[in-house]
Design brief:
Layout (H helix, E strand, L loop, with lengths): L4 E6 L3 H17 L4 E6 L12 E3 L12 E4 L2 E5 L16 H19 L33 E5 L14 H10 L4 E4 L10 E3 H4 L7 H11 L2 E4 L3 H5 L3 H4 L5 E6 L15 E6 L3 H13 L1
Parallel strand pairs: 1-2, 1-5, 2-3, 6-7, 6-9, 7-8, 9-10, 10-11
Antiparallel strand pairs: 4-5
Helix pairs in contact: 1-2, 3-8
């Protein structure tokens, strides 16, 4: 049977979907003769800006163990990078590994349908979110130069030694009372200079792209581990803004999203085993 439709699927988390967005979008744009959908369990909203239909993730239809699978007139493609680690030396959840994964996915597409997709240079896949697709907060009274976004939610895939950001938050809000700290998740810490994204954003469903917008337009400083909100803030306009300072906390040398990739912002990739070392770097650069 002739293939007429391509369905991407992913059984993992928000950050995994963000990493896939520029590549999935490029594949769809390269193959306009096919219809496309994307199945995952993180809600339809986060992929609204790539122009691909959302599909419910059904384990009986999407075989988690397969890289790709043909079902009738549909080619199903697994986008979870971990599925392809065995092909890649020094594989980790970072941009370089993701790029190599899509070289393999594009080969699988060629093997399945005989159409070759030319993969672009890695830096051409720095994603730029189309914020017009989302519920952008307006009339925010924030001082860009003195506003810090902290992604303090759970890290689902274990890419940080820090189980909680509370020590960092408690330290910073006391050392820098003149700055506003926007947290992506509730904290037990009480301070007049703490705000929450949920109080700034009015939307239904996921607010990850809206958080990214606030970080882009209203925050000079961004701090986080490799969790969904922090990964969604790795857009081109944020990463390549020379007036931003970004602090990425990680547990080993290559699990950082931007591992070995240079951008225009001041991007600090910090091993987080020594909390005092983390404090020192962030404090010094919030003072500069």
């Amino acid at each position: 049977m002739e293939i007429k439709r391509i369905a991407f699927f992913n059984y993992f988390h928000n950050g995994d979907i963000f990493l896939s967005k520029p590549y999935v979008k490029h594949i769809a744009e390269s193959l306009p003769q096919f219809s496309f959908s994307y199945a995952h369990s993180n809600g339809s909203k986060i992929i609204k800006d790539i122009g691909i239909d959302y599909q419910e993730l059904n384990s009986s239809y999407f075989p988690e163990s397969a890289e790709y699978f043909i079902n009738g007139d549909t080619l199903l493609i697994n986008t979870h990078v971990g599925k392809y680690f065995s092909y890649i030396e020094d594989a980790e959840c970072n941009w370089i590994t993701t790029h190599k994964v899509y070289e393999k996915i594009n080969k699988n597409i060629f093997d399945a349908i005989g159409v070759k997709i030319k993969i672009k240079d890695i830096k051409d896949y720095v994603y730029e979110t189309d914020y017009s697709c989302y519920d952008i907060p307006s009339n925010l009274s924030l001082d860009y130069e003195n506003t810090v976004m902290i992604s303090n939610g759970n890290v689902m895939s274990g890419q940080s030694n820090l189980q909680s950001m509370d020590n960092i938050i408690h330290y910073l809000v006391n050392v820098f009372p003149e700055k506003k700290f926007i947290l992506t998740h509730e904290s037990s810490i009480q301070s007049n200079n703490i705000l929450y994204t949920k109080d700034l954003i009015q939307t239904n469903g996921s607010d990850l792209n809206e958080i990214s917008y606030i970080a882009d337009k209203h925050c000079k400083y961004i701090i986080g581990r490799q969790s969904g909100p922090f990964i969604f803030m790795n857009t081109s306009s944020i990463l390549n803004n020379k007036n931003k300072k970004i602090f990425s906390l990680r547990y080993n040398r290559n699990c950082d999203f931007l591992y070995q990739i240079k951008v225009d912002s001041e991007y600090f990739s910090i091993l987080d085993k020594d909390i005092n070392y983390v404090f020192d770097i962030i404090e010094k650069n919030l003072r500069d």
